[in-house]
C-alpha cells in the first residue's frame, strides 16, 4: 500500500453560495446516491468505486455541519487574505469580521486600506478558502482534485443543492 503523505490533506466541497444550507432531505438523498453508486460503503467509508469521485480514494466522507458559519481553508500554516481592490493584507480585520458574522452581523467588512466595503466571501484568499454553512468533507485524500463522473457529479450537486467549489486543507 502506498504511503500517505506526512501532512494530511482533507478536501471540503463547499456551496458557491456561502449562505446555502443543506436540507436533511438533500443530505440523505445525496449520501444515498453516493452509496448506491459504490462511492461510499457504510458510515462514510470508501466503497468499491471511490475512485470515480477522486483518484486515490479517501479515508472518510461526511457532511460537516458546524454550529455556525465557517471558513474552510488551510489549517496548517493558514492562508493569506487580501483586499481585492487595494491588495492590503487583511488577516487581523478579517478574523474580527468573521467573528461578527458568526455572531449574526452582515457578511462584510470595511477595508482599512481603501475604505471599500467587501463581502467576506469575495476577498482574495491564498491558498483558496471559502465561507459556508456546511461542506462535504473528504478526509485523508491523495489528490486535491475531484474527478466525478456524470452520475457521481449529479449526486454531489444533489447533496450540495447547486454549484460548489473544492477547497484543499492541509494539516488537522
Ligand atoms: Zn482595500
Structure, explained:
The model has no long low-confidence stretch (mean pLDDT 93). 21% of the residues lie in helices and 24% in strands. The chain has 172 residues and is α+β, with helices and mostly antiparallel strands. It contains three helices and ten strands. The chain has a four-stranded antiparallel beta sheet with strand order 2-9-1-10. A two-stranded antiparallel ribbon has the order 3-8. It has helices at residues 24-36, 91-102, 150-160; strands at residues 9-15, 60-64, 70-72, 80-82, 108-110, 117-119, 124-126, 130-132, 135-139, 164-170. Bound molecules: zinc ion (ZN). The site of zinc ion has 8 residues, from loops.
Q: Roughly how many Å apart are the termini? A: 23 Å
Q: Class by helix and strand content?
A: alpha+beta
Low-confidence stretches: none
Number of alpha- plus pi-helical segments: 3
Residues in helix, %: 10-25%
Q: What would the average pLDDT be, to the nearest integer? A: 93
By CATH reckoning, the class of the largest domain would read Alpha Beta
CATH topology-level fold name of the largest domain: Alpha-Beta Plaits
Q: Tell me the radius of gyration.
A: 17 Å
Basic shape: elongated
**Beta-strand share of residues:** 15-25%
The major sheet is characterized as: 4 strands, antiparallel
- The total tally of domains equals 2
Total number of beta strands:
10
